[in-house]
Amino acid sequence: MVALLACLLLVLPSWAQVPYCGTQYAKDIPVPRSLPAAKAGAIQQPAQIEVGTPLVFYSALSIQPLVPATCRFVGEHSYLFVEDSQWAGAGGPVAQQDVDTLGVLFEHSTPADPQRGIYALAVEAFGEVPDIDGDPRLFILLLDISEPGYIGFFDSNLATLPLPEYRRDTIYLDAPELRRQSYLARGTLAHEFQHLIHWGHDPDEDRWVDEGLAGYAEEVAGYPEADKDAVPAFLKTPEAGLLWSDQPQAYNYGGTYLFMSYLAQRQGKAFIRQLVAQPRNGTFGVDEAFGSQGLDGDFLRAWGGWVVGNYATADARYGYSALKGRRVRVQPVRDLPIEEIEGQVGGRWGAQYVSFPEAGNVEIDFSTEGRFQVWAYAWQGGQGQLQEVGLDETGQGVFAAEGVDSLAVIAGRSGAQGRSFLLSASYFIPTLVAELVASPRQLQLGAGYPNPFNGSAQIPFSLVAETEVELAVYNSLGQRLRLLQEGRVMPGAHQVAWDGRDQTGAQAGSGTYTVVLQAGQVRLSRRLSLVK
Prior knowledge:
The chain has helices at 23-27, 96-107, 118-126, 175-180, 182-201, 207-221, 230-235, 250-267, 269-277, 282-292, 299-309, and strands spanning 54-58, 66-74, 78-83, 138-143, 152-154, 170-174, 331-332, 338-344, 351-356, 360-368, 372-380, 383-389, 396-404, 406-413, 420-427, 443-445, 457-463, 467-474, 480-489, 492-498, 511-519, 522-530. The chain has 532 residues and is α+β, with helices and mostly antiparallel strands. Helix 5 (182-201) crosses helix 6 (207-221), helix 6 (207-221) crosses helix 8 and helix 9 crosses helix 10.
């Protein structure tokens, strides 16, 4: 094996942490054992809340856990409270105009739909809103979030606070950022509202699913990619996968959002509601959503389609609108042959993309000890063609592309273990034989197809003169498995089928085999993969 190529050793880049959503952080903060009892009307919720009503809120992400605030807006579905120290009259950044604008956005009108607010759009997309406090309206609190980097959060621990007067359905937004980063703050409002809805249906959902749907909520409200760095970071780091680390990076937000947007576009909005409603988590919840909708699909196939779509963005069969014409980082390889260079996919459900922009006739060998799915996307005559490269039980597979304008190999990691793979590639010229042959066009052994195959493969060859021919299949030990044709063959094009059986008629196992054509003194060979 040649030395590792830095371009293919995929180490996750050190993107700056972008933790604009504090929901998970708040969830991990222990619930206080005690809080001050409700001795004043500003703490205990009155029977009716109106503009000017004071209340005290619990906040896990503030310097002081109890935050005095005053109601500044009342809508059909929400109250907007502003922390007293953040109100313009007290020298803070939030004025009445800011509150009214946010209230209209949540209640009445969004960039996505001038006739509907975030509330209506989110309920339609994700499901009904939970109610832990008995008030049909939810609370939106504009406050000073002391933890750096967080623009907003939803705190599921509110339901378990020791005093019931603090248990309010609340979305928290950072008051200073409402003006400094208005687009991000407004998108975060939709983002955190999805967290609240999802918690009501499935409180222990896997983080990557919940955050991906929260990112999709931004799109639903008309604030797609509220964090402008997230999707570009993922497109530069597709090997990161869908699963999140304890310290999320920008590419985590970007990748999971794109996957959920892809699911919504391909499967419809009803599918997303079903996904939120599923009590099972992660990939199992996706499978259940497919089943409950009566759809022919599952997570693995959806993920595979998304992985391909992230490359074939211009192909309507695979691309999707959230990409906006962008695609993942691709490593081009121009100098062939290459032998056993190693690539890595660092995260489960991540992928690496290797392209051969001047493909012509290329044969690819792939091998891994991990669990991967591999696809070849060939561009020929203005059209793209996709074929899955079947891997045998040893993790090996072969793909041959003849006469294509370009070729991309997409390696997606589907297993928890084994991140490395080996890739080799070489050009082949179907009409070329060894220099010992007088005429380079005397003999041709074409690439068997389909390759890999499951059932029967066609093996083409051609002669320009009558020749004594032997066509046979050999296993990985060099033992002849099956004699397909023997004797004198007339000139012209010929095609022989192999049904995957040995000389006795027994079914051969999955694996990579070598087809050998011996014609006179010339011997040609091709590899062919059988997948059962």
